[in-house]
Design goal:
By secondary structure, the protein is mostly beta strands. 11% of the residues lie in helices and 49% in strands. It folds into two domains: 1-50, no CATH class; 51-84, no CATH class.
Length: 89
């Protein structure tokens, strides 16, 4: 009975980028046939987008002050002394 009424499917996507650990993103769907040529589709998925090259490597001084727009790579933590109490130069 459910063979003609319910269809289930699932998939997993794996993405890896040089500067970041790999991520798994799952997707699940269910299609329910309510009448001939009429279906209801339910789906669930998650997504992940790695930062662009600009988002990773930017090091831009903003205005004339000591404000910077910095990238998200771990080496910026050390370069800008964000892990210490020392003033930024």
């Amino acid at each position: 009975m459910l063979k003609d009424v319910l269809t289930l499917s699932g998939s997993v996507r794996y993405d890896k980028q040089t500067n970041f650990k790999g991520k798994l993103t799952p997707r699940f769907t269910a299609v329910i046939r309510v009448a001939k040529d009429n279906n209801i589709r339910l789906s669930y998925q998650t997504a992940y987008r790695f930062p662009s090259n600009q988002n990773q490597f930017i090091s831009l001084r903003l205005g004339g002050g000591s404000s910077y727009l910095i990238g998200c790579l771990p080496q910026f933590q050390t370069y800008y002394k964000l892990n210490s109490t020392l003033p930024v130069m």
